[in-house]
Amino acid sequence: MATELHETIFVAKQERHKNLFLNYKNLNIFPVELLKDEGLLFLERLYMKRNSLTCLPDNLAQKLPNLIELYLHSNNIVIIPEAIGNLARLQSLDLSDNALQLLCPDIGRLRALRHLRLSNNRLNYLPPEIGDLQELETLDVAMNQLMSLPDRLHRCVSLQNLTADHNLLGRVPRQLCWLPRLNQLSMAANQLTFLPLDLGRSRELQFVFVDNNVELEGLPSYLYNKVIGCSGCGLSLGGMEGAAGEASGEASGEASGEALMGLPAEVKVIGSKADGVVPLEELAMRTLHRFYRHWPAGEDGLGLLPPIALPKSLLDLLQFPVGHCHRCSQAMFTIIYPKRFPLRDTALAGVHRRSEQTNPLLCFLNTLISPFDPFPLPPGRP
User: Fold this and answer.
1) What's the helix, strand, coil split of the chain in %, to 5?
2) Residue 170: pLDDT above 70?
3) Concatenated DSSP letters for 267-318?
4) What percent of the chain has pLDDT over 70?
5) Can you tell me whether residue 131 is helix, strand or coil?
6) 1-99 has CATH 3.80.10.10 classification
7) Which of 139, 273, 267 is nearest to 193 (CA)?
């Protein structure tokens, strides 16, 4: 193995390779051959995944000054040297699945950095200097022990994808709402109790994953037309039984009021403690579908008109669900599969864009929201 490693590095130096693959080499120390003489001045991408490295050399930037991508996934690295900040051209740094307990403030000197992956480490703190990374597009800090995110994170004006699942986060910094290009925010399986009221106000934010936050009972009204993290129908077994019982009950004036209880008294309260949350658009469609489907027939056998008049375009939507839940078989009307078919792991990631076409359901929902929301959406505006 050592002879093969020496030969690989020797050939890379002789032929001025820009890419060097040293994955799965059982390395427990950084190869000194990479740092001898002038090093690999032409090297741009270094792959050292699935080894047993515990540290990085202080002169890494001096010997490999043109590194653009550095992949150190799945090692045993505990700390990275302050000199990491000297890698002026570095755009992608992957330190996932290591043993990092501390991230040095010098990380903020990587001004060209676009992708930073720190998932599955032991971090309980992120330095505020991360906010100096104005070119950063992707930040993944999932599966750590973070109790908060830096308030200065909103200075990462290029940030598009923020993943902080499986931490100990109790709140979302309101400053995140100011990120102009944020497209996906994933904070599932934390300890969130509330979300900033203006989260989702940005048109760029399309995906919000906040499921498995057991204390989270409500969502900001701006999120009702986003793709909200949800598994299947988003209801616990108890909730499904309750819904079934309600739907099968006698439909009367009193029962019709109960049937509409799925539409919350306050728009913000649309979550389920046990299994996550459902977009208000989908929740309203299910409730209306159940309400109309079980409305009783008159004495002449013809269906009576419910007390709520809906436009024909919306009635047509209710007759043609896009599918049925794999758990409870209830009808579903909008795209609510981000956990069953996660777009972020497919070729469709980032393709989703909100439609500019008039949506009759949104127009109808706007009339329901207006008593509770001081800033209702205008008809036809997604």
Assistant:
1) 25, 10, 60
2) yes
3) TT--EETTTEE--HHHHHHHHHHHHHHTPPB-TTSSBPPPSS---HHHHHHH
4) 62
5) helix
6) yes
7) 273
Q: How many CB atoms lie within 10 A of CB 331?
A: 17
Indicate the pTM of the whole model.
Answer: 0.63
Exposed/middle/buried for residue 68 (C-beta within 10 Å: 0-12, 13-18, 19+): middle
Give the pLDDT band (50/70/90) at residue 214: confident
Q: How far is it, in rounded angstroms, from Cα 28 to Cα 293? A: 65
Give the span between the Cα atoms of 315 and 292, in whole angstroms: 9
Nearest-angstrom CA–CA distance, 22 and 51: 9
> Tens digits of per-residue pLDDT, 100-155?
999 999 999 999 999 999 999 999 999 999 999 999 999 999 999 999 999 899 99
Tokens coding 97: 């699945």
d(CA 336, CA 321): 13
Task: Quickly tell me which residue has 């579903």 as its tokens.
Answer: 332
Quick one: angle between helices 280-293 and 237-248, nearest 10?
30
Mean pLDDT for all residues in the chain: 74
Can you list the positions of beta strands (E) in 129-223? 138-140, 161-163, 184-186, 207-209
Q: CA–CA separation, 335 vs 348, rounded Å?
A: 13
Domain locations in the chain? 1-99
Higher pLDDT, 263 or 88: 88
Nearest to 232 by CA among 127, 89, 340, 149: 340
Helices and strands in the chain: count of H runs, count of E runs = 7, 14
Report d(CA 252, CA 185) in Å as an integer.
Answer: 43
CB neighbour class for 361 (10 Å; exposed up to 12, middle 13-18, buried from 19) = buried
Q: Which of 163, 229, 169, 174 lies closest to 202 in space, CA to CA?
A: 174
